[in-house]
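Thread: quick sanity check before group meeting

JM: Hey all, I'm pulling together slides for Thursday and realized we never actually wrote out the predicted structure for the chain we discussed last week. Dropping the sequence here so it's in one place. If anyone has concerns about the input, flag it before I start.
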Amino acid sequence: INTGLDMYVAGNSLIVYGEYASLKVIDTTGKIGAQSQNMQVVDISQLPHGVYMVAAQNKEGTVLKDKFIRR
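JM (edit): ok, ran it. Output follows.
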């Protein structure tokens, strides 16, 4: 899945560019591992290494999804 979310992992943070009402980091089992509200940064320091999906909801309610690898 690639929706063109502009994001990158910097150390223990996932940074997503743009204005989003919420960001959720979801593991391969569907569990929310980390989230933030009205911020571009999500703390991912507690997540084990692996593949995750990011669900970014904008202020209109549209959800964009993309995936990343936590190394």
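AS: nice. Residues 25 and 54 are 5 Å apart (CA to CA). The mean pLDDT is 93.
JM: adding both to the slides.
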